[in-house]
Design brief:
With about 190 residues, the protein is an all-alpha fold. It contains 12 helices and no strands. The termini are far apart. This is Ankyrin.
């Protein structure tokens, strides 16, 4: 059974942290990979909403770690953009692709940096995420953090060796140029 958005009872249970219901549905052969109209699987819904126990259950039952939504976001990307550090760690530990790009060619690290999620950025970098991965505009995670005035993330990325001279593809500007243009004084001092 599906609702008007193509969501199944398993998708709703996964998004709503009803672990016992998820377990019951899975034990009764609910399809782990059924996608909503937005192409999100139950694992994507659980990851987006930060439901650690449900993520663990679905992954342990064989849910696809790399299933992509309409935005080409994997469960790891959803967890990173929503700042769910523990879920990010769970998915990485189970082998999720650190470099999976979404529809805007952004990796989970790029999404976390863009949104200023310090702990998730640290975790992804420590696990080996590529510091210089570029999105469709050619912006690196450092450039994304600088544009959005995320001082702590900028410092983390600099400390890990991010390229200070990386330029975007459109305006050919560095993180420093973008920080200056945006009036982000603290970030300018770091760069």
């Amino acid at each position: 059974a599906r609702d008007d958005n193509g969501r199944t009872p398993l998708s709703w249970a996964a998004a709503s942290v009803h672990e016992a219901v998820v377990n019951l549905l899975v034990d009764n052969h609910a399809d782990l990979e059924t996608k909503s109209n937005y192409s999100q699987t139950p694992l994507s819904w659980a990851a987006e909403n930060g439901h650690e126990a449900v993520v663990k259950l679905l992954v342990d039952k064989g849910a696809d770690l790399e299933a992509k939504s309409n935005y080409s976001r994997t469960p790891l990307s959803w967890a990173a953009v929503k700042n769910h550090e523990t879920v990010v760690k769970q998915l990485i530990d189970k082998g999720a692709d650190l470099e999976a790009k979404d529809a805007n060619s952004q990796t989970p690290l790029s999404r976390a940096a863009e949104n200023g999620h310090e702990a998730v950025v640290k975790l992804l970098v420590d696990k080996g995420a590529h510091l210089e991965a570029k999105n469709f505009n050619g912006r690196t995670p450092l450039l994304q953090a600088a544009v959005n005035n995320h001082e702590a993330v900028v410092k983390q990325l600099i400390d890990k060796g991010a390229d200070l001279e990386a330029k975007d593809n459109i305006y050919r500007q560095t993180p420093l140029s973008w920080a200056v243009a945006s009036g982000h004084e603290a970030v300018v001092k770091l760069l």
